[in-house]
Amino acid sequence: MDVRDKLGLLNEKIKKACDASGRNPEDITVVAVTKYVSNERAQEALEAGLNHLGENRDEGLDSKWEYLKDKPVWHFIGSLQSRKVKNIIDKVTYIHSLDRHSLAKEIDKRAEKPVSCFVQVNISGEESKQGLPPQEVGSFIEGLSQYENIKVAGLMTMMPNIDDEAELRGYFRKMKHLQTEIAEMNLKHAPCQELSMGMSNDFMIAIEEGATFIRVGTALVGED
Ligand SMILES: *Cc1c(COP(=O)(O)O)cnc(C)c1O
């Protein structure tokens, strides 16, 4: 199916989830995750009107960066090694995987202007997942005030591999509470208004619970 058709289906589902929860589809930004697909497919995504693209490796970002004629807004969504920061920093607008001070320090050092970051949270406590435990997020974010080039746009999470809708919904809801708590701290460097959560399998639940950025690969640009 071409990206345009997939985007049509996605938009219908976004609308449905928004209708169910009294939200406005305009408040949801779709990040098309192109990590599995070719440069040509990424170009097709741009032509379909998607201008936020996400990659989780510096190699993938480089290749698509070079190839695409029109420049999208790039999101770095994967775990990020500090030594890779210099390779990506001039290409990306958002980094979704800030989870430690050493990384914040490196971003701060390499960036020439403030970078919008999402602090990654391990909301399910699953051992294999990246991110900070929820109880450490507030103090971590307070401590980021020392870095001039870090702006905390919001929180990001990934769900564990489970199908239990009620359990997933509970995790998304906890993320919304945590985001609200941080926003209410009124920190100048951390407006924290955004929630990056929801992927191909669970974006409707994520939207119903407050996601403002959804990161969708397979269901949107998957080559099937
Ligand atoms: C791959 C990936 C996605 C997209 O996953 P799909 O299931 O293909 O939609 C979203 N977020 C992150 C961090 C990813 O690595």
From TrEMBL:
The cofactor required is: pyridoxal 5'-phosphate
A GO term, aspect molecular function: pyridoxal phosphate binding
Entry's SUPFAM superfamilies? PLP-binding barrel
> Matching PROSITE patterns, A to Z?
UPF0001
Pfam families per record:
Ala_racemase_N (PF01168)
Answer whether the UniProt record assigns the keyword Zinc to this protein. no
Q: What InterPro entries is this protein classified in?
A: Ala_racemase_N, PLP-binding_barrel, PyrdxlP_homeostasis
Q: Does the keyword Iron apply?
A: no
* Gene3D superfamilies xrefs: Alanine racemase (3.20.20.10)
Superkingdom classification of source: Bacteria
Question: Keywords, A to Z?
Answer: Pyridoxal phosphate
In this UniProt entry, the residues modified to N6-(pyridoxal phosphate)lysine are 35
Which residues belong to any copy of the Alanine racemase N-terminal domain? Answer: 40-223
What's this protein's family per the entry?
A: Belongs to the pyridoxal phosphate-binding protein YggS/PROSC family.
- General function of this protein: Pyridoxal 5'-phosphate (PLP)-binding protein, which is involved in PLP homeostasis.
What's the protein here called?
A: Pyridoxal phosphate homeostasis protein
State the species of origin. Answer: Rossellomorea vietnamensis
